[in-house]
Amino acid sequence: MDDWTPIEVKSPPAGVPLMVTVRRDVSEGPRLVVLDNVYYMKVRGNPDFGFYGAADENNQIGPSYFKVTAWMEYPEPYEEASYEYPF
């Protein structure tokens, strides 16, 4: 299931841990990377929302290095079926 939401379609919720797809333009050409533990939030002194790693206002993602292209909330953790072993 593809739960990625393009940033042009909808902004992510603020203050929620996210996974984001970013485009990094390097000399060899554009490179797509997935980052996790990213938060969409405002920080003091800046009226605009931005993407920050680990909710750290000193760890902004982009815009000079990376461009966030899509986001998704963390999926529910995988839960193993419980098995009872015969003894």
Main sheet properties? 5 strands, antiparallel
Mean pLDDT: 84
Overall domain count = 1
Order of helices and strands: EEEEE
User: What is the overall shape?
Assistant: extended
Helix share, percent = under 10%
Class per helix and strand makeup: mainly beta
N-to-C terminal Cα separation, in Å?
39 Å
Stretches where pLDDT is under 50 for at least 5 consecutive residues are none
Main sheet: which strands, in order across? 1-5-2-3-4
Residues in β-strands, percent: 35-45%
Total of helices: 0
Number of strands: 5
Q: Output the radius of gyration.
A: 17 Å
Structural commentary:
- A five-stranded antiparallel beta sheet has the order 1-5-2-3-4, with no helix packed on it.
- It has strands at residues 5-6, 18-26, 29-41, 50-53, 66-73.
- By secondary structure, it is mostly beta strands.
- The protein has one domain (5-73).
- It is 0% helix and 41% strand.
Which key terms come to mind for this protein?
87 residues, 5-stranded antiparallel sheet, mainly beta, 5 strands
Mind sketching the topology for me?
Layout: E1 5-6, E2 18-26, E3 29-41, E4 50-53, E5 66-73
Antiparallel strand pairs: 1-5, 2-3, 2-5, 3-4
Please summarize what this structure is.
The protein is mainly beta and 87 residues long. Helix content is 0%, strand content 41%.
